[in-house]
Amino acid sequence: MLIANDEIFGPVMCLMKFKTIEEAIGRANATTHGLAAGIVTNDLNIANRVSRSIRAGMIWINCYHNFDSGCPIGGYKMSGVGKDHGVEALEKYLQNKAVVTPIYHSPWL
C-alpha cells in the first residue's frame, strides 16, 4: 500500500495486522524510509526487542510525537539528512581539521 511505503506527513496513521514479531519488524524495515515508528505493547521485553530491530531514527513506545530538546531527531535511510536537537545536531556545524607543523629544537624530540 502507498500509505505504508511512502513517507507521508500529516495527520496519518497506518495500522497493519501481523502474526509474529518478526513479521512486524520485517514490514517496518521493508521501506526506503525510516523517520519514526511507534510501538504499542504491554510487554517491555517486546518493546525493547522491536525498538532495537526497527531501522528508524525515532521510536516511541506507548506514546507518539513526544520530544525532548536533548534527544536527537533524524531519520534513517532516505528520511532526512543529519540530526536536529541534542549534541548530535552540532555535528553539522563543525568540521575537523588536522594541522601538522615541525617543532625545531624541542627537548622532546
UniProtKB/TrEMBL annotation:
GO molecular function, one term: aldehyde dehydrogenase [NAD(P)+] activity
InterPro entries noted in UniProt: Ald_DH/histidinol_DH, Ald_DH_C, Ald_DH_N, Aldehyde_DH_dom
Domain of life: Eukaryota
Domain (Aldehyde dehydrogenase): residue spans on this chain: 1-99
Pfam families: Aldedh
Keywords per UniProt: Oxidoreductase
Listed EC numbers: 1.2.1.5
Name assigned to this protein: Aldehyde dehydrogenase (NAD(P)(+))
Species annotation: Helianthus annuus
